[in-house]
Amino acid sequence: MIFMKTLNVLITGVGGQGTILAGRILAKCALEAGFDVKANELHGMAQRGGSVTCHVRFGEKVFSPIIPAGEADFMLAMEELEALRYVSQMKKGAFIIMNKRTIMPAGLENKADAYPREIQKQIAALGFIVKTLDAQKIALECGSIKTENIVLLGVLSKQLPIKKEIWEAVIKAAVPRKTIEINLSAFERGQAL
């Protein structure tokens, strides 16, 4: 393997969106591609609906699973507010893949005006490259909303030095057997974007 600096990927979402599974798939793909990998999962207060993040770091040699503040190269944000919440983790010019999905935090359900507006513009104004997509819509077109995370991984996969065959093999092994085709379809759709 040629020398490669450590790549830092922050995956963020809320409980129930498949954030942890996405982090595990990415870490396994990087490992299968021959990289040294360190990963960490941080769960929010609530099992469903709380903030969840995964740090995945890979390269020639990685010493810590935690991405230092301001050093993330990529963010995979499964929800808009979670993207805004963690922009301080990103390095200048980082690439952010953001799902156009709003999940109102507990306690704000009746206060829609409290949820920030134009999050994509706010993040782009900070100097980040932002790619937004409606992963929920694409996942539903593939047959299951539960593949939203796999659609987003498909988009991310085009930015990383990991072969498509590795992604497909790891996804097949990571998801329930009866959902393999739906998940592979979701991954393909994400890659095509």
Quick take:
The chain has 7 helices and 6 strands. The protein has helices at 19-32, 80-85, 119-125, 135-142, 148-157, 164-174, 180-192, and strands at 7-14, 36-43, 51-59, 72-77, 90-99, 129-133. The protein has a 6-stranded mixed beta sheet, sandwiched between helices.
Describe the 3D structure.
This protein has 193 residues and is α/β, with parallel strands linked by helices. It has a domain of 119 residues: Pyruvate-ferredoxin Oxidoreductase, domain 3. The protein has a 6-stranded mixed beta sheet with strand order 2-3-1-4-5-6, with helices on both faces. Helix 2 links the parallel strand 4 and strand 5. Helix 4 crosses helix 7 and helix 5 packs across helix 7. The longest helix has 14 residues. The radius of gyration is 16 Å and the shape is globular. The two termini are 29 Å apart. The relative contact order is 0.17. The model has no long low-confidence stretch (mean pLDDT 90).
Q: What is the element string, with H for helices and E for strands?
A: EHEEEHEHEHHHH
Q: What would CATH call the homologous superfamily of the domain at 7-102 and 118-134 and 161-166?
A: Pyruvate-ferredoxin oxidoreductase, PFOR, domain III
CATH topology annotation of the domain at 7-102 and 118-134 and 161-166: Pyruvate-ferredoxin Oxidoreductase, domain 3
| Tally of individual helices | 7
CATH top level assignment of the domain at 7-102 and 118-134 and 161-166: Alpha Beta
Q: What amount of the residues lies in strands?
A: 15-25%
Strand line-up of the largest beta sheet: 2-3-1-4-5-6
Please give the radius of gyration in angstroms: 16 Å
Q: Which secondary-structure class do the elements indicate? A: alpha/beta
- The percent of residues in helical segments reads 25-40%
Major sheet, described briefly? Answer: 6 strands, mixed
For the secondary structure, the number of strands is: 6
